[in-house]
Write a structure and sequence with these properties.
heterodimer, A: 259 residues, alpha+beta, Creatine Amidinohydrolase, 4-stranded antiparallel sheet, 4 helices, 15 strands, globular, B: 110 residues, mainly beta, OB fold (Dihydrolipoamide Acetyltransferase, E2P), 3 helices
Chain lengths: 259, 110
């Protein structure tokens, strides 16, 4: 939780971008397979195969749980359907028309981590649901735009919070974004709420996983008995978008957009 | 994969620790009295009854007469028999206390 963020050299950032490229490809492959009737375990298999075919390691497999007595994470992706905010375990759940599914995935390539997520509509969704996806994606965009050298973590937080709350949705506070690099979770924490100008200063070479999690209803979280699956307390829908972003003198670099 | 944030509830209220010395313990509500007063059985960190007053026996410590902190009354935090609560005691009178927090059952299992 504490400690300083490691600043990466331009070469190291390129290595992380290569990792992010594999990840973006895996997410594209999963996205192409999302359709009514598909099981979330099938999506997990697609991601695993793509990552291994491209020389990477799925980093979510075997991540130890934050709570005691909970098994390590069993999948390469988190498949978070409808009211699941994050960390849904892929399994026998079958997607139906009108569902939304958050796909969160991570890759290790040559020792460098990347972490990214998107929330997809399964066939047609209601206009309100579509608006949730749009606002959450816009919040991620605003966060990336605020990730400028010399500014603060709190500027990212405030950008997300303002975007989301202006549209009447709520920000999940139980989970936060994080520094990323040689391991998946590094300092600093990147909350999706809080005042601009607060927190550590953003320095060129910092790499952050920025990930707004947005609920339609209350912001509170409840956990399933598996210890991982985090749901909205009131059963309302939740969306999650994430990119791994590097701070540079030339503005934010998105490392997981496939470029 | 999102990171879980550290628990904020583990911190003690700042206003108090700066002013007067208080003893903070946990307890279980055993009776609800009028005027938002409660009888609370003091519990140690291990969940076993805590002996804090002179003259207490180990297995049946005296219940503490506790009132609900003003901020909790303002927020209409409801307390019932059986709830686990956080208590502040004055070191000068260990038979009375102030309830500052209702511990949620979800938090206790985790």
């Amino acid at each position: 939780m504490s400690g300083k963020a490691e600043l990466k050299t331009p070469e190291q950032l390129e290595a992380m971008r290569a990792s992010g490229r594999v990840l973006a490809g895996a997410l594209d492959a999963v996205e192409a397979a999302v359709a009514p009737g598909v099981r979330t375990s099938e999506l997990d298999a697609i991601a695993q195969e793509y990552i291994r075919d491209h020389g990477g390691i799925p980093s979510f497999l075997g991540v130890p749980a934050a709570a005691a007595g909970v098994e390590p994470f069993p999948g390469a992706i988190c498949a978070s359907v409808n009211d699941v905010i994050v960390h849904g375990i892929p399994g026998g759940e079958v997607l139906t028309v009108g569902d939304i599914i958050g796909i969160d995935c991570g890759v290790i390539l040559d020792g460098w981590h990347s972490d990214s997520a998107r929330t997809l509509a399964v066939a047609d969704v209601s206009p309100e649901t579509f608006r949730l996806l749009q606002v959450t994606q816009a919040a991620l965009g605003a966060a990336i735009a605020a990730a400028l050298a010399g500014r603060h973590i709190g500027d990212i937080s405030a950008a997300v919070q303002t975007t989301v709350e202006e549209d009447g949705f709520t920000i999940v506070r139980r989970f936060v974004g994080h520094g990323i690099g040689r391991t998946m979770h590094e300092p600093p924490q990147v909350p999706n709420f809080g005042p601009a100008g607060s927190g550590p200063v953003l320095a060129p070479g910092m790499t952050l996983a920025v990930e707004p999690m947005v609920n339609v209803g209350a912001a509170d979280v409840q956990f399933d008995d598996d210890g991982w699956t985090a749901r909205t307390i009131d059963g309302s829908l939740s969306a999650h978008f994430e990119h791994t972003v590097a701070i540079s003198d030339d503005g934010p670099l998105v490392l997981t957009d496939g470029s | 994969m999102a990171r879980q944030r550290g628990r904020r509830t583990d911190s003690t209220p700042k206003e108090k620790s700066a002013k007067s010395p208080v003893i903070e313990i946990e307890g279980e509500v055993v009776d609800s009295l009028p005027n938002t007063m409660f009888l609370v059985k003091p519990l140690g960190p291990d969940g076993k009854p805590l002996r804090i007053q002179t003259g207490d026996s180990d297995d049946e410590p005296k219940a503490i007469l506790a009132h609900l902190a003003g901020k909790m009354r303002l927020r209409f935090i409801r307390i019932g028999v059986g709830d686990r609560v956080r208590l502040q005691l004055s070191p000068y009178d260990l038979s009375r206390g102030r309830i500052t927090w209702r511990l949620r059952p979800e938090r206790m299992e985790r």
